[in-house]
Amino acid sequence: MMAAEQMPKKDWYSILGADPSANMSDLKENIKTHINDKQSTDVSAGTVEECVQKFIEIDQAWKILGNEETKREYDLQRCEDDLRNIGPVDAQVYLEEMSWNEDDHSFYLSCRCGGKYSVSKDEAEEVSLISCDTCSLIIELLHFN
Questions:
Q1: DSSP 132
Q2: In the chain, N or C: fewer CB atoms in 10 Å?
Q3: Which residues form the DPH-type MB domain (predicted)?
């Protein structure tokens, strides 16, 4: 997993001018557009420096978003950061305390509002915050060591 300090300090999607729901082909197209927009033969030294910095940012964004695994990790971290901004954690729950749903291979826990917290088996190892599917409550997912 990528180090927390690498993600998501910058919004890599906005650097590429892309929507977070964009697929790989859309991301590639956005990169081409940004690079083609910046190409010119008659530019000042300051503009060249700006273009170089923009190219470096685009390259960094592609290194994260152009790889399915790092993109997934980045997206999970963005989601978790969004949840942290919504409000405080309502409870801390160990994964082992959650129920298993064999039908969709996920863990779930009922919320006091009647909704449920749900996390897939794959995501359970990587996320630490889960929001209720009905209200705004959030739980922190803990793991036994």
A1: B
A2: C
A3: 89-144
Per CATH, the number for 12-83 is 1.10.287.110
Domain 87-142 sits in CATH 3.10.660.10 = yes
- Taking 3-state DSSP, the helix, strand and coil percentages for the chain, each rounded to the nearest 5, stand at 50, 20, 35
CA distances from 122 to 24, 68, 87 (A): 21, 14, 25
Question: How far is residue 71's CA from residue 65's CA, in Å, rounded to a whole number?
Answer: 5
pTM of the predicted model over 0.70: no
The per-residue pLDDT for range 40-66, each reduced to its tens digit, is 556 666 777 887 888 888 889 889 999
Is pLDDT at 135 greater than 50 in this prediction?
A: yes
Within 13 Å, how many C-alpha atoms sit on residue 117's CB side? Answer: 27
Helix (H, G, I), strand (E, B) or coil at 112: coil
